[in-house]
Amino acid sequence: MLNEITVGPKVGQVSEVDKEDLAAAVATAQEVYDDRANKTQAEIDSATETLTTALALFNGKVIKAGDATDLYEKLSTATILLSEVTVGTEVGQVSEVDKEDLAAAVTTAEEIYDDRINKTQAEIDSAAEILNNAITTFNNNIITAGDPAAIIQTISEAENLYEEGEEGTSVGQYIVGSKTVLKTAIDTAQLVLDSAASKTEQQLSDAEALLDQAITVFENSKVTPLSGLQNVTVKDAETDLSNSVSLENGESLVLISSSEAIATATEDSTGTIKITGVTAGGPVTITVQVIKDGQVIRAGSFTVTTIDSMSITSKELTDFNFSTVYATQAKLVSKPVTVGDFTGNRKDFTIVIGEDRIPVYVDWKLSTDFTKGAAMGSVVESHIQQYYIDKGGSDALMNRPIYANGSNDTFQIGTYQSGVSSSFTLEGTDWTYFFEQSVAHGTDTDTSGNREFSVSDGTNKATIQLTYDLETVEGLVSYINNALENAAVEAKAEKISSTQFKITLTTDSGELIIDGINKEDFFG
Questions:
Q1: pLDDT digit string (tens) for 56-88?
Q2: Which residues contact residue 130 at a Cβ distance below 8 angstroms, ignoring those fewer than 6 apart?
Q3: Which residue in 153, 162, 313, 401 has a CA-CA distance of 20 to 30 Å to 204?
Q4: Residue 311's pLDDT band (boundaries 50, 70, 90)?
Q5: Taking a C-beta distance cutoff of 8 angstroms, is the pair 459, 439 a contact?
Q6: Rounded to 5°, angle at Cα 398 from 392 and 404
Q7: What does the alpha-carbon distance between residue 443 and residue 324 come to, in Å, rounded to a whole number?
Q8: Which domain of life is it from (predicted)?
Q9: What is the CATH number of the domain that holds 116?
């Protein structure tokens, strides 16, 4: 037995002391046995009894396998949990890590249980305790339904705001459409509350936070007042740019005049309000609205009073062409020249200009280095130059009043000077061979369409000289305003209709004076 049972803490082993005690008992009994011939029966029986007691005690000290019933029950509990509880974020679920931890604990416990015949009670109890702790931790980590008290209170608060809130475009009202946004948030939160039994604390908290945020947005969605708007006094036909609104990205301006017959309001540049006086009267109210995403988010108003200003309105005009028609030169263009050789077919005509009579003829073959028109023009020009050389030499040539040239299949005769005095005629037997008509007239400069009038503010005076085709009343108004500005006249022209304009004095001190030779053509 002493050789079979080893010393150690495992099942079937004993302690060093227990083995030494048995070895001592065996040694004592061996001594008695070896000396049995000299021992009485009583001594032998006593030695036998002592050894038997030592054996019984030794056997009692041999470590036994533990009871694994409790461990088995806990393994069963853990196995059921692993099969029934799924991984996820919903109520009744656990995280992947939690499930992995319990599975690892089960594996360790199963190893102990499977080797239970070799495990001490302490080892089995330790494994059971570790598994029990893992089961407790696992159960504690199973997601439970949250407390809905906070979201119930927030929904109630939101519903009160919704019922009491009034939408509109006036300051203090909620922006149109904001109640719909809040109602959507309330309905979303209510859906979460309706299924609160299956919602985690975090899910309920998230839903409540989103509704809280919607409440904050709603409370901040009132139409706010515009500050800094000032009441305005403006003269009729004048403008005012003293009011402006700072606009952010996505914002636009809407301006409403309570009477556009007295004053109009438009946006001159981004955020700048342009008031134009129309007729004396007022005060009228200008409503200012800032729009974003189609809704009024800020609003304000100011008043405009329009007072009389000194002005004069034109007659109705139908023609805005005041152009100067400049003088023209006399000129005749020939028929196409179809013959290139006049040998035996002489042609004669005379150019008459003033007192000069210039004979022209051709009875030879034209040069083929040029077109027929250019060659014939050269012939006529040669006769003109020869005539004036014969008349007065080089001075007469350089100051000759007429010329000829040609290109392609025609040639022309024209004067250097313009005006009626530059006219000339053709005579002779063959002028009709070359030309359709015999008389060429120049024209003098025509200024009959020009007009002139003046505008004065009592200090400075602008003379409006109209010598161009201005085409429209807008062109005329622009031309007049340029002249007024250049002359520092404090007045302004503006279009009334497609046929009328108005000139208005733009200073409080001064007098509007219209004068000039054509004043009556424009003003009554």
A1: 786 766 667 678 899 899 999 999 999 999 999
A2: 105, 108, 109
A3: 162
A4: confident
A5: no
A6: 105
A7: 13
A8: Bacteria
A9: 1.20.1270.90
The answer on pLDDT for 176 being more than 60 is yes
| The amino acid at 46 | S
The residue from 163, 197, 222 where one domain ends is: 222
Residues 6 or more apart whose Cβ sits within 8 Å of residue 521: 315, 451, 453
Q: What is the CATH number of the domain that holds 235?
A: 2.60.40.1080
Region 272-299: mean pLDDT is 91
pLDDT of residue 238: 80
Claim to verify: residue 342 and residue 424 sit in the same structural domain: yes
Residues of the domain holding 425: 329-440
Distance CA 430, CA 349 (A): 5
Q: Are residues 420 and 373 in the same domain?
A: yes
141, 68, 64: which is closest to 100 by C-alpha? Answer: 141
Beta bridge partners of 506: none
**Taking the mean position of all CA atoms in its chain, how far away is CA 177?**
23
What b/e string do you get for 331-357 counting C-beta neighbours within 10 Å, with b at 16 or more?
bbebeebeeeebeeeebebbbbbeebe
Q: Are residues 43 and 129 in the same domain?
A: no
Cβ neighbors of 510 (< 8 A, separation 6 or more) are 310, 457, 458, 459, 490
For the chain, the first-to-last Cα distance in angstroms comes to 150
**Which of 440, 471, 486 represents a domain boundary (last residue)?**
440
Q: Are 402 and 389 in contact (CB under 8 A)?
A: no
pTM over 0.70: no
| pLDDT of amino acid 2 | 65
Work out the angle at residue 143's Cα, subtended by the Cα atoms of residues 139 and 144, and round it to the nearest 5 degrees: 100
Would you say residue 134 has pLDDT above 80? yes
Say if residue 235 is in the same domain as residue 295. yes
Task: Give CA separation, 493 vs 75, 261, 268, 296, 498, in Å.
Answer: 102, 20, 19, 37, 14
Contact 324, 447 (CB under 8 A): yes
